[in-house]
Automatic annotation (TrEMBL):
It comes from Roseburia inulinivorans DSM 16841. Binds 1 [4Fe-4S] cluster. The cluster is coordinated with 3 cysteines and an exchangeable S-adenosyl-L-methionine. Pfam families: Radical_SAM. This is Radical SAM domain protein. GO terms for molecular function: catalytic activity; iron-sulfur cluster binding; metal ion binding. [4Fe-4S] cluster binds at residues 57, 61, 64. InterPro entries: Aldolase_TIM, MJ0674-like, Pyrv-formate_lyase-activ_prd, rSAM, rSAM_sf. Keywords: Iron, Iron-sulfur, Metal-binding, S-adenosyl-L-methionine. Its cofactor is [4Fe-4S] cluster. It comes from the Bacteria. Residues 53-176 form the Radical SAM core domain.
């Protein structure tokens, strides 16, 4: 199979063990599978989200918080049968959902694993947690398998997306991918119809605020609200954490100030965004980044 799952369209031959930009072959590779408590409240809840962190990523943002799994240097290769078992083990641990993190380059295998897991008793909602650098065709493969989409919308500016993620087409790609996600899920549905409860289906679009990129952030929020209104939830994140690899990007080598974040939240309110999440407290800490030590794999 020559891989064209993501917009990079490397067309590497998996059967020959070739690796594309994501750094992976057809062999599933997972860095962590455990209860995760740091997602939006309607996903983590009290019991935690059953997060499965897949190794590799086609985007490679210069500020990546999960760099060691994005570049594929950590993780363990597993069989499809082991992935099925992982899903069922997370259900036994009373996870609120199965949360697939950066899974796009393994979609065909994941679909097979979900088919088998459901035959063996998996009943949890499935979350697809993605950078949104996805092809529409790949997202269409997930219809009927994913209940909750959790996509990023990182940039509107092609200048920024080229500089920080080597993807000048990011906004165009993300818009199309998110449109397909919303088409599949429709308006969000919560347990007992109450928004303070766990989400059962729907799309929550995340935006991570970057230092010095406030105008771009505002454009993203306006686009999402103008396009989808109350069909989606928008999660405005302030947890950007400068790591040790930003020497070439000194403008990113700081955290978002409280004033910057408050300005963006006020803007969201002013343009009419009502369905959303904001972060409070000291969320911009490396301690919020889990250890990718193959726990649960």
């Amino acid at each position: 199979m020559k891989c064209d799952l993501c917009p990079r369209k490397c067309l590497v031959d998996w059967k020959k063990g070739e690796k594309g930009i994501c750094g992976q072959t057809e062999n599933l590779k997972v860095a962590r599978a455990a209860l995760h408590f740091w997602e939006e409240p309607c996903i983590s809840g009290d019991a935690g989200s059953g997060a499965v962190f897949f190794s590799g990523c086609p985007l490679h943002c210069v500020f990546c918080q999960n760099e060691n799994i994005a570049n594929g240097t950590v993780g363990k290769e597993i069989s499809l049968e082991r992935l099925v078992d992982i899903f069922l083990e997370l259900q036994e641990k009373r996870a609120n959902n199965i949360n697939l993190v950066t899974p796009g380059h393994f979609v065909p295998q994941i679909v097979k694993a979900l088919d088998q897991a459901r035959k063996e008793g998996l009943t949890l909602p499935v979350v697809y947690n993605t950078s949104s650098y996805e092809t529409v065709d790949t997202i269409k493969m997930l219809e009927g398998y994913v209940d909750i989409y959790l996509p990023d919308f990182k940039y509107m500016s092609p200048v920024l997306s080229k500089k920080y993620s080597h993807a000048p087409d990011y906004a165009e790609v993300a818009k199309a991918a998110i449109a397909e996600m919303v088409r599949q899920t429709g308006k969000a549905v919560f347990v007992n119809g109450e928004e303070d409860n766990l989400i059962l289906s729907g799309t929550i679009v995340r935006h991570l605020t970057l230092p010095g990129c406030m105008a771009d952030s505002m454009q993203i929020l306006k686009y999402l609200h103008d396009t989808y209104g109350d069909k989606i939830y928008i999660s405005i994140m302030n947890q950007f954490t400068p790591l040790s690899n930003l020497e070439k990007y000194p403008e990113l080598n700081r955290r978002i100030t409280d004033e910057e974040y408050e300005t963006l939240v006020d803007y969201a309110i002013d343009i009419g965004i009502e369905n959303g999440f904001i972060q409070e407290g000291d969320t911009a800490e490396e301690s919020f980044i889990p250890a990718f030590d193959c726990e649960g794999v």
